[in-house]
Structures are given as structure tokens and as C-alpha cells.
Amino acid sequence: MAIDRKSLRGKLFITIFGAHTRPGRQFDLILLWLILLSVLTVCLESVPSIRSQYHNILHALEVFFTIVFTIEYFLRLYSHPSPLKYLFSFFGIIDLLAIIPFYLTFLLPAGHFLVTIRILRLLRVFRILKLTSFVHHAHVLKTAIAASLQKIAVFMLTIVALVLIIGTIMYVVEGEQHGFTSIPQSIYWAIVTITTVGYGDLTPKTAVGQVISSIVMIMGYAIIAVPTGIVTVEMSRTQPEKKKSENTECLSCGKSMPVSANYCSHCGHHLHE
């Protein structure tokens, strides 16, 4: 269903959904700050000292944000060419989750349901998912990760085999008397150590175990860098394709020119005729 861009509905559609237009960018910027401030309000409300001292202010802010997001939600429904398609889309569901917890607190009765209401109010943090609509260049990352999946899968299988071997060795070296009561427990230690997390709840006591632990820690730094390197290489491979897609071919001389150019720099032909 086509929308007349000169009508009120068309202008609203360009402003709300037109991320590459000037009004759309301004709308997105304002909405971005409102989302961040709303999520910050939810987080501050969870702090008992802040909630007791600034309850009225936080509640007023929550009412304000809910009203704004409600208006935005219905404007999106009104201006979209296919309202039902938007309603059941990913972003449509996220936009609904951003406002519905506030109204659910009025629908549920009081009394012993107060605990349930407080849990429902925590769903307001889903507003942070609205930020995903501002990630316009996520396709590059998505393509790079998809291209890296096979290599990362092989890498992860190697790590699984490695922690299994290390865990078994540590179980033999340290033994149950030093806390390594089973191979799964030793594998848990190996994973914690090789990822450089180091909870400290399970540590080797023997000299051999400490030497092995030191080697595993050093290995961990190299291992962490591998997936990052794999994805970075794939991302760099997508860049030439991206640059190529941003060019257009002159119909007169056949030279490649940027899409933003109006005239060919070689023959002067109008590129968009």
C-alpha cells in the first residue's frame, strides 16, 4: 500500500521510519536519548536509597517516558503502510514491550499480587532493545560473523578438547585432596583459567599443578584473540564489496563513479538521467 509522501501520514512516515532523511535522523537522535534516560530511570529506581528519596520524581519521569513511547508507538502504527506487518514485526513487539509493563500494573489487582507487579515493571528494561533499530551498519557485522561461523566452530571444538585434556591432567596431578574432586570439576577449573576469569574458588596446591596453571593462563591470552582475529579478517573482506556497491557506472563512458556524484568526472555525463 503506497503512501502519499505529501500528506500528514506520509510526512510522519518519512520522519519516523526515514533513518536516512534529515527529519528521520533528528527524530532518531531524540528517541535515542529518551530511551537511554528511560533505562537509566529504571536502573536508578532499583536502588533502595535513591527510590526512597526520589520516588515522586522517578515516577513522574516514568509516566512521561511511557506517554512519549505510547504516542510514538501509535504514530508508527498510523504512518506505516502495513500497520499489521509492523505490529507483529520484531521492532513492533519491542516497541510494545517498552510501554506495556507500565499499563499492566494498573490492570492487575493489588494485595498479594504486588510482588508480581514489581517483577512486571522490570520488563521496562526491554526499552534498551529499541536501540537495535539505530544500528544501520549491523549488516557488515552480521555478514562477517556468518562467514566466520565455520572457523569459529572448529576453534571452539579445539578449545573443548583442550580443556578436557587439561582438566584430566589436573585431576591426576592435584587429586581430590586439593579440591579437584572429579574430572568435570577439573574441566570447570580449566575453563575458568583459560578464559582468564580466575574466580579463585579452586586453585592448584602442588608445584606441578601451579606450573601447568601458569602455562594455561598464558595460553588463555592467545586463545581469546583468535575469534576476534577471525571476525576482523572477514569484516575487512566485506569492505571492498561495500565500497563497490557505493559506486555507479557512467552510461556514457563506463567509468565507475560514487553514487553521491551527479556528473561523471571523465566525460561530464549526468549520472542520474
Automatic annotation (TrEMBL):
One of its GO terms (biological process) is action potential. The chain crosses the membrane at residues 30-50, 57-75, 87-120, 152-173, 211-233. The keyword rRNA-binding does not apply. It holds the Pfam family Ion_trans. Keywords: Ion channel, Ion transport, Membrane, Potassium, Potassium channel, Potassium transport, Transmembrane, Transmembrane helix, Transport, Voltage-gated channel. InterPro entries: Ion_trans_dom, VG_K_chnl, Volt_channel_dom_sf, Znf_C2H2_type. One of its GO terms (molecular function) is voltage-gated potassium channel activity. It is a multi-pass membrane protein. Residues 250-272 form the C2H2-type domain. The keyword Ion transport applies. It is found in: Membrane. It comes from the Bacteria. One of its GO terms (cellular component) is voltage-gated potassium channel complex. Its main location: membrane. This is Ion transporter. It comes from Dyadobacter luteus. The lineage of its organism: Bacteria, Pseudomonadati, Bacteroidota, Cytophagia, Cytophagales.
